[in-house]
Amino acid sequence: MSATSGVNLDANDYDFEPLGRITALLDHADQQGATFCHWKTNLDLDKAMTGIDDLDLLVAQSDAAKFEIALLNERYKEAESITSRYQPGVFHFLANDEASGRLINAHIHLHTQTGDHFIKSWVLPFEKLLLEHTKEIAGMPVPEKEAELIIYVIRSMIKHASLYDILLILRKGKSSSREYDYLTEGADMARVASLLQQHLPEIKPELFQRAMALLSGNVALYYKIRLGRTFKRKLRKYRRYSAITQTAITTWALFRMAWNRLLSKHKHMLLRNGGCIIALVGPQATGKSTIAAELRKWLGVELAVSTLHAGKPPRTWVTWLPSLAIPLARKLMPGNTTVKIEKDAVDNDTRKFPLIFIIRKVMLAWDRRALLQKAWRQARNGKIIVSDRYPSNLVGAIDGATFRDDAIDNESSRLKRTLMKIERKLYNDICPPDLVLELTVSTEKAIERNKKRHKKGPKQSTDYVRLRHSMKYKPVFDTTPVFKISTDDDFNEMMLTIKQIVWSAI
């Protein structure tokens, strides 16, 4: 039966299929001779093994290097938290499961840190208890119920000594009692007492039985809090912070969490090997915005990631006021639309460009440079940026510098030549992306998609879509890996391919 369907979870009785990337990690760790187990909430092991919840793996400290080899060989990437909840001996590794496209988050523990929710202030001597008494479920070593019950009861009592954790316990409601029922059903209490005496003699069997009685019944919270304080005193030598330090760090962690969720809205993880800029390029209606949203949804489950639209950058303080005159200029010069001018330029590199068009292109270059310079700084500080469109090295290609050398040399106006060169310089100031996904689709399918689009603002004309697909100069990225992706294919299969490419590159 499934682990979530009841409390009778047996090592030979499950109906979930573990993710391939998780199974490969377990096999590789076994080959390395590493000792490990999944040590938290094994009632819901199916969720951890299928990528819905995190994996919490306790690894013998002497085998840490062996397990790290298995992680790296199976393409797990180390990440770190950007909050203040630092826990020595706890490491985070992420992986992409190719078959499902799910992002796996593996927490690697070298010590059994537990207790309060935020900073896990207690480091209890339970590594040997958990690692030496295991059974296997779907290839994953898990502690015997008696060992896991000891951890659960002590962790629960410590949490009843913390106000914030009490609030979390009340919020969880019946989920805690469900785990308690699972752990106590069929447990050998004589063995529990023996293991407790061997590994944590500070907690006498009578005290442990009192805790179990409180956790099993509908007892007033007051009594649980009192006993929780008793456990806290008995185990005080295992605390890694003093009471004052713990309060200060917890307060700061709460503030950081509130800031992260309410204001910055960033996830708490950054990859150790740094951030990157992923550029989605291609003509109109190739699916750039849709794919950008999917990548943000996928990576944003665990990582700090943002999307931006380099094709329509926000106005800067320099261009905001002049941009107000653009609608008026379009009405006064209806024959000089951007589409018409760019269409003429496709067939004539040396055509004359109206001054208003050149000014508009310089403004656009300025705004793009500001947006992409900011994105580059964020990426170099660990964030992942997904950019819808990106300027390339080739002048005249879509979304990049407009005016080629022949056009500049052929211009008699000194002012126009100067502005054209300024536009070129602004684009030269933009750093290249780290990965380019060049999207392609047939022109007719792009036209069909464009008619069905529901984006904000005016819909682009069919002529504009044809123009973008027929441009003479295609984007060139000299120093960046470029992968061509046809968006004519099945969307789900295409996204699995894209996820594999992105995960290999970041």
Fold and architecture overview:
- This protein has helices at 20-32, 45-49, 64-73, 127-132, 145-159, 163-172, 174-184, 189-199, 205-216, 221-234, 243-264, 288-299, 320-323, 326-332, 338-347, 355-380, 405-409, 414-428, 443-452, 462-469, 491-505; strands at 36-38, 55-59, 77-81, 90-97, 102-109, 112-114, 122-124, 134-137, 140-143, 269-271, 276-281, 305-309, 384-388, 435-440, 482-486.
- It is of the alpha/beta class.
- It has two domains: 20-241 and 253-263, no CATH class; 274-505, P-loop containing nucleotide triphosphate hydrolases (Rossmann fold).
- The longest helix is centred in the C-terminal third of the chain and has 26 residues, at 355-380.
- It is elongated and about 95 Å long.
- Mean pLDDT is 85; it is low at 1-9.
